[in-house]
Amino acid sequence: MADAVIVGAVRTPVGRRRGGLAPVHPVDLSARVLAALAERAGLDPAEVDDVIWGCVSQVGEQAWNVGRNAVLAAGWPESVPGTTLDRQCGSSQQALHFAAAAVLSGQADLVVAGGVESMTRVPMGSSIQPPADGTPAGTGLPYGGQLRDRYRGRPGFAADDPVPFSQGVGAEMIAQRWRLSRTQLDEYALASHQKAAAAQDAGAFEPEIVPVAVPDGAKVALDEGIRRDTTLARLAELPTPFRADGMVTAGSASQISDGAAALAVTSSDWARERGLRPLARIHTAVVAADDPVLMLTAPIPATAKALRRAGLGIEEIGVYEVNEAFAPVPLAWLAETEADPTRLNPRGGAIALGHPLGGSGARIMTTMLQHMRDNGIRYGLQTMCEGGGMANATIVELL
After folding, report:
1. Is 97 a catalytic residue?
2. So which residues are the signal peptide here (predicted)?
3. What is the maximum span of the chain, computed from C-alpha positions, in angstroms?
């Protein structure tokens, strides 16, 4: 039976905005993980059939197919192609799904999936250019009149704003619908930092991270977003930017970050022939969509879809990684799935570690695989909300 297995997984540290990775061009950041992936997995780059690379803000330094540019910057053979995709925050998780599909279908033997986002150098929203006199063709604002008319009048949808959908407003609406309190959100955020700090202190992240050299000669080797000194009292002092009477703050939201990650996907037979060691089998991969105004709830139907197709119950999954775009997202997911909260994001999530958009899906999978290997966990599930009200869900089985 055809299968798709992961034979390598590596990531950079996640840098804070204007932090240690800020001087590194996103193409060079991507090239660093590609080179490390080949070295650590023991694969020959010349045998890579394709590189599928996630990136959200494909403009400026991340324009003109950053995936292909990363291949060349890594020194891989010019015969290795690369492409770049955007499924918003789930871009590199979708890259993994496409890689698995290519291997399962027999169209490719070895595919690299991953992604990058340098949110310091290419700020979120850089690809949007408001119309102005003399604006060239092909620039301007997304969405268009028909989409705006469809949702005009909906609470949470600002039809006449340049960007009418707001993830922050969606997070506030989720908190309200699931009756989550400000204290619950702050407690969740604090726990994310505490879990990430404990994992970092124990050296749990070291096997999955490739240090990155920066132009001044230093190396960045640790995730920079973990706030060891934060407290509930400090979190309670933060303002609520999305609603004056709201509950979501910068402290209960994912961090703006820089980073990249990569995964190598092939079949068990092909891996065996070349002496590569499979880490996990890609058991089930799905994508789902939900209300684009509420925006962040699709991990709930995506999880249900993945479990149904896998023939598994939530209790059979030993670890769940639900991206912490905002604290209400995993908390609502827990309430709907009735999953064991002790299995959720055991090494912290994007609130503590950061969220480099196009690279986050591969970063999360890399971290989950390492946790599964360290603890002998058979099944792991990853899901993350995405702009437009979508979500990917992936179930992997440890080998």
Report:
1. no
2. none
3. 60
**Is there a catalytic annotation at residue 55?**
no
89 in catalytic set? yes
How far does CA 143 lie from the centroid of its chain?
23
Among candidate residues 193, 283, 355, 371, the one labeled active-site is: 355
Q: Which member of 55, 89, 97, 283 is catalytic?
A: 89
The CA distance from 34 to 115, in Å, is 10
Q: What is the pTM of this model?
A: 0.97
Task: Provide block-wise average pLDDT over 10 residues at a time, the chain (399 residues).
Answer: 95 98 98 98 98 97 98 98 98 98 98 98 89 68 94 96 94 98 98 98 98 93 98 98 97 98 98 98 98 98 98 98 98 98 98 98 98 98 98 98
Q: Give domain limits for the chain.
A: 284-398
Please enumerate in sequence order all residues whose Cβ is within 8 A of that of 233, keeping only pairs 6 or more positions apart, or say none: none
For the 284-398 domain, the top CATH level (class) is: alpha beta
- From the list 32, 87, 69, 150, the residue with the least C-alpha distance to 298 is 87
Q: What is the DSSP track for 120-159?
A: TTS-TTTT-----TTPPTT-S-SSHHHHHHHHTT-TT--T
Structure tokens at 359: 């690279």
Q: What angle do CA 328, 330, 332 make, to 5 degrees?
A: 60
Which ranges constitute the DSSP H helices of the chain? 26-41, 66-73, 91-105, 144-151, 167-177, 182-201, 232-236, 268-273, 299-310, 328-337, 350-353, 360-375
Q: Are strands 257-266 and 5-11 parallel, antiparallel or unpaired?
A: antiparallel
Of 55, 97, 371, 385, the active-site residue reads 385
CA–CA distance, 167 with 183 (Å, rounded to integer) = 20
- Phi/psi zone of residue 8: left (φ > 0), alpha (ψ -120 to 50 degrees), beta? beta
Question: Which residue in this structure is represented by tokens 């600002």?
Answer: 158
Q: What is the CA radius of gyration of the chain?
A: 20
Length of the chain as a residue count: 399
**CB count, 10 Å around CB of 311?**
9
Q: What is the pLDDT of residue 141?
A: 85
Q: How many CB atoms lie within 10 A of CB 234?
A: 13
